[in-house]
Amino acid sequence: MTLSITHLGSGSGGNATLLSTPESKILIDCGFSGRQLEHRLGLIEMKPTDLDAILVSHFHGDHSKGAVIANKKWDIPLMMNFQTCDRLGLDPVNECKLFESLDLIAMGPDLSILPVPVNHGEADNVGFIASHLGERAAVVTDLGSWSDELARHLEGCVHISIEANYDSKRLWEGPYPDRLKQRITGRGGHLSNRQTAELLSHVVTNKTRSIVLCHLSAQNNAPHLAESEVLLEIDDFFEGDISISTQEGPEFSHYLGQAEPEKVAI
Ligand SMILES: [Zn+2]
Ligand SMILES: [Zn+2]
Question: 3-class DSSP state for residue 204?
């Protein structure tokens, strides 16, 4: 009995993460076109109609665009909070099922999901903590700062997927307009590599077996920068696997209930 966590792709061009148990198959976010979703699921021998639901973290298109398409095209149920539903212009009765932060959602006999609020400007964003047979996995992206509450939920997770959006030096020396730089670095923007490293240094325990850094900015970050900044903080006590999820996926899966990560055969 395992829960597999597979990023179908991550970044401002689209995000989707598959959580799969023997009884439940759900996507966290879908920012890909219907064709891309079909293609990426096909690479791991799945099809969109295998999905039980798509949980949408917030209304930004890189997380929600494909979810709405998948609902219309394949009738896959959508779940989100009220503000996300409202911002997407969906009917909260007929077009999606609403959840509330910190209310546990039972997805099936072997999977439950806890939405945890995170700071992301005007978007009422949530991270997701999945529970499977007593173990937990986190998928958290798009937050400008982290709270003690979020840290409490991440602590003890066997798997943590967390954004490491930008390298501060690259962002500030880069070509973005000042207002955009301020928005990205503000409390409602995105986590820098440094912030992610600090958060992980507080929450990684000897239970943590795998970390995926995701939603890296193509302009303002690079995999080696994110990984080295994080390792600087946690290398002394973290003995698990650390990977980077890129825009092109799926590249690998991680598992609860099984120690070693596996490459996806594509
Ligand atoms: Zn995003
Ligand atoms: Zn966002």
Answer: coil
Domain ranges of the chain: 3-252
What is the 145 CA–ligand 2 centroid distance (Å)? 13
The ligand whose atoms approach the alpha carbon of 125 most closely is 2
What percentage of residues in the chain have a pLDDT greater than 90?
A: 94
Ligand 1 center–CA 1 separation, angstroms: 31
- Annotation: CATH topology of 3-252: Metallo-beta-lactamase; Chain A (3.60.15)
pLDDT digits (tens, 9 = 90+) for 22-55: 999 999 999 999 999 999 999 999 999 999 999 9
List the one residue out of 235, 25, 31 whose CA is nearest residue 8: 31
Torsion of CA 82, 86, 91, 95, to 10 degrees: -70
Tell me the pLDDT tens digit for each residue of 129-158. 999 999 999 999 999 999 999 999 999 999
Ligand 2 centroid to 84 CA: how many Å? 11
Beta bridge partners of residue 161, listed in sequence order: 139, 212
Strand partners, 97: 79
